[in-house]
């Protein structure tokens, strides 16, 4: 590991750099940034902009060090081509820079589509990795690790030379594909990846059959080296942290509904906040035993249901409710439907009555009666 200490230091700093950027520019960022994109390449879910910089980077940093430990602790990588090792060490930092740069671009250019940029990044990645695959020596962490390549040095070398050519050609094709229409890009992604990934597996199997036929197959597989205690401890700690974090999200969080003078303010844990001006609210209904339909994208736990949902009756709508309360308030606005709900039925009814008063819709209903 000492051989790559400066690379490890630089890549680790770069992976954590977005945290610093988020703190420096927090007052200049928009309130929310996209975190998920639909099949049309357009953003359909958002996250608090500061949280986007502060949360994603540490998660990638953990994955970065998992890659480092698993790669450098593999004894067969001690004689690995240094260029291949450095390529692996730069994968997560490159992804971090791409995501951070995309977020900054979206924040200041108001651009909410990702298809073109994702295709460009993947195209460049396939070209780069394709160039290094033929240089990759047999090991258990890097490369095409299937039965026939691990059992035969010759099969490994032939398969990786073939895969390298396929990935370079495919990467160049993806660069041109980035200029396809937005919807076409998304549907072209899986075929592109399939064409580049499946043929090397097939080639390895066919070459294995050829070796068996001409008697040149010599099984050379070595006994897998047991994982080191350091690697086991690192993975165990990571899994404990992930499970603990998931359990924390599952049973915590709140939604606050604040009826100010001008708008209904919705402030939610683990999701972007929402403001509904009263003059944009067209109708309000209290619904008991609300059937929320299915979640399209968003946050769902044992306590909260938030994000984009859909039903046959309402179509696609935005939801901010507590899971254990079936009494909800449906709000029709000029920009779509929003469904909200308190911790219990009494809280939902209170929100409903307050909104009727603030919007004046309650008085209109009385006059019509």
Report what the structure shows.
The chain has 369 residues and is α+β, with helices and mostly antiparallel strands. The protein has 2 domains: 2-244; 255-368, PH-domain like (Roll). 54% of the residues lie in helices and 18% in strands. The protein has 11 helices and 11 strands. Strands 6-10-11-9-8-7 form a 6-stranded mixed beta sheet, covered by helices on one side. Strands 3-4-5 form a 3-stranded antiparallel beta sheet, with helices on one face. A hairpin with a 2-residue loop joins strand 10 (328-333) and strand 11 (336-340).
Taking Cα atoms only, what radius of gyration do you get, to the nearest Å?
26 Å
Strand content: 15-25%
Shape: elongated
Overall number of strands: 11
Secondary structure topology:
Blueprint: H1 5-24, E1 32-37, E2 43-48, H2 49-72, H3 82-89, H4 91-109, H5 115-132, H6 147-151, H7 153-177, H8 182-214, H9 229-251, E3 255-259, E4 263-268, E5 274-277, E6 281-287, E7 294-300, E8 304-311, E9 315-322, E10 328-333, E11 336-340, H10 345-359, H11 361-368
Parallel strand pairs: 9-11
Antiparallel strand pairs: 1-2, 3-4, 4-5, 6-10, 7-8, 8-9, 10-11
Helix pairs in contact: 1-2, 1-4, 2-4, 2-9, 5-7, 7-8
